[in-house]
Write a structure and sequence with these properties.
The chain is of the alpha+beta class. 17% of the residues lie in helices and 33% in strands. It has ten helices and 37 strands. It has a seven-stranded antiparallel β-sheet with strand order 1-2-11-10-5-4-3. Helix 3 (162-173) packs parallel to helix 8. The radius of gyration is 25 Å and the shape is globular. Bound molecules: flavin-adenine dinucleotide (FAD) and FE2/S2 (inorganic) cluster.
Length: 554
């Protein structure tokens, strides 16, 4: 009888519900504890997870290392169902963008996302799994300390992006009780930048990573619309654009990158826009609706903007220097497929070409002349041709930069100057999965990870950066996910079918797999990221085999 029930999940749940040991009690904080039987012990094998419900609230139940544990079921980033992710030991990796959570504690261990998962009590009795619900909150903020009024120790964080924000939060989570000042040129508190090219007309409040009162609550001074123009690392001061000086004990430079401007004639005309800020996104949305738009650049920003505008503008023409979009990063095959996706929505491509001149009338764009001679009528031009690091203001200090102007940091995000740290898009850092080669990788996830590592070094709990890069892009509602660092790859091995837009691509550098990308193939890229993070070798033979069971796909 027991065997039969164990083999039949539905029966087991019916039994569990009928015999449920449901008891409700109120604890000291007036939170209702609800305990329910969610399944039989035998329903879950070691290394498996399952979504269960207590009082209608979804919970992720996990059996790992012989023990059951239960945590929130939705990723704290964009609420992906974690049951569809990749479980390795005590860590579940989100299928969407690679965030990792400890399934015993619910703690976030890899980004993106800021918060931990709630964790719930699990008890096994008579072969039944009981889970106690004490909160219906989907997220849990780690305990944060406060500033001690008498402390004069000051950390200045330059930049209001994720690297700075995670640094500030990690400091407070590690009992830092000095003063934290976050200085940013932005006129918004830290916001979800990747959304700017995917949902361009979203309201600013819906973009914020933390509510406005969060900073005050946690004693993080947020100085907006302020720019640091120079640093004196001998005197330990920074100078602001209003010429005031601020003393620091420790400094984080997390100033990210800015969009690279066009150098051609006409690039300064009205209606020629770069995409950097919330206002830029709003302006592009407003100026392009119902108009003839030319997008310059076929990497992530250009392609996402073209995709977003494809059903809003009167026409969208995309100009790219290579044969296919994403050619350098994702390769020709995937690039060609994305081009076809957008062509089906009426987007026109002018590849192997570039802008010679943007011509205007009364200060506004009228037409774009291509180097091959084509003339495109245009009411608006959006430029997405790469980025430049915001690091000029460190010139004159002993802070070392590479030849591309990225700030050089070590494995703990320390620069060449004592007590000066740097993180995010502005740095080149040693990448573990590539033998600690110094690289610059501008990913949302890595900026978070860098911020945490910098904060831990500041509070003398140094930990080396080990994050595996993870990136995503969204075209016409479909997400391409990418993990690793494919620079210098020699060939690509495909699984699935590109023409069906359901594939997994492995980027090989000779016989070593250096990166993977996928579309409609979850959670393969999360599983590969996890294997790379744990240092598991993935051989060419495994990749070329038709048997992908080594990926442990559900
Ligand atoms: C439109 C867009 C879409 C993107 N989409 C994705 C995506 O889908 N996936 C992904 O992984 N990544 C994406 N990215 C990249 C991602 O946003 C970055 O990797 C990430 O924001 C880097 O974080 P950061 O903290 O290093 O710097 P940023 O977020 O760039 O923040 C830099 C901060 O420094 C401030 N600053 C600069 N100079 C100064 C100064 N001198 N004084 C004071 N403040 C200063 C700026 O105002 C800003 O607040 C996208 C980027 C853009 C622009
Ligand atoms: S939804 Fe989980 S990492 Fe984005």
């Amino acid at each position: 009888m027991a065997m039969l029930l164990a083999n039949n999940i539905n029966n087991a749940l019916v039994l569990a519900t009928l015999t449920t040991d449901l008891h409700k009690m109120t604890n000291a904080e007036e939170v209702m504890d609800i305990t329910e039987v969610v399944c039989l012990e035998s329903d879950l094998q070691d290394g498996q997870m399952k979504e269960v419900e207590v009082d209608g609230h979804k919970i992720l139940l996990v059996r790992s290392g012989g023990q059951f544990s239960a945590v929130g079921s939705r990723c704290t980033h964009y609420a992906a169902p974690l049951v569809k992710g990749s479980l390795q030991g005590d860590k579940v990796r989100c299928p969407f963008h690679g965030a990792c959570f400890n399934v015993k504690t619910g703690d976030i261990e890899e980004y993106p996302g800021l918060d931990c998962l709630p964790s719930y009590k699990v008890k096994i009795e008579d072969g039944k799994v009981h889970v106690t619900l004490h909160t219906k909150e989907a997220k849990r903020l780690k305990q944060m300390s406060h500033q001690e009024p008498e402390s004069s120790h000051t950390v200045i964080l330059i930049g209001g992006g994720p690297a700075s924000l995670v640094c500030a939060e990690t400091l407070r989570q590690n009992d830092y009780r000095g003063r934290i000042v976050m200085v940013t040129k932005d006129d918004l508190p830290p916001f979800d930048k990747p959304k700017l090219s995917k949902a361009m007309n979203v309201e600013s409040d819906r973009l914020l990573l933390r509510p406005k009162d969060f900073f005050q609550q946690h004693d993080i001074e947020l100085w907006m619309k302020r720019e640091v123009i120079s640093i004196n690392t001998e005197a330990k001061t920074v100078t602001m654009d209003d010429k005031t000086e601020q003393r620091y004990d420790q400094l984080l430079i997390a100033t990210g990158c800015r969009a690279r401007p066009m150098a051609c004639p006409g690039a300064d005309l009205e209606n020629v826009k770069l995409l950097e800020t919330f206002k830029d996104a709003q302006d592009i949305h407003n100026m392009c609706a119902g108009k003839k738009v030319v997008v310059v650049g076929t990497s992530f920003i250009g392609m996402e903007v073209a995709s977003y505008l494809s059903d809003k503008a009167a026409s969208v023409s995309v100009i790219g220097k290579s044969e296919y979009p994403f050619q350098l990063s994702l390769g020709s095959e995937i690039g060609k497929m994305t081009m076809e996706m957008l062509r089906e929505k009426g987007v026109k491509f002018y590849m192997n070409d570039n802008v010679a001149e943007i011509r205007g009338e009364n200060g506004k764009v009228k037409e774009v002349i291509l180097q091959k001679g084509e003339l495109l009528e245009a009411d608006a031009v959006v430029i997405g041709i790469g980025v430049l690091p915001n690091s000029e203001f460190v010139d004159g200090t002993k802070i070392q930069k590479d030849k591309r102007n990225n700030i050089i940091v070590d494995k703990c995000m320390r620069t060449s100057v004592s007590q000066v740290f740097s993180a995010g898009d502005v740095v080149c850092f040693p990448l573990g999965i590539r033998g600690h080669e110094q690289v610059n990788i501008a990913h949302w996830q890595l900026a978070h990870a860098h911020g945490r590592i910098a904060a831990l070094a500041m509070v003398s709990k140094p930990v080396e950066i080990k994050s595996v890069p993870f990136f995503w892009t969204v075209l016409l509602g479909k997400s391409i996910r990418y993990t690793g660092y494919g620079n210098g790859y020699t060939d690509i091995v495909f699984k699935g079918k590109l023409e069906e837009r359901k594939f997994l691509a492995f980027y090989m550098k000779e016989d070593v797999m250096v990166a993977a990308a996928s579309l409609n193939f979850d959670p393969a890229v999360a599983a590969v990221a996890e294997m790379m993070a744990t240092g598991k070798d993935i051989t060419r033979a495994q990749i070329e085999s038709d048997d992908l069971s080594w990926l442990n796909m559900p």
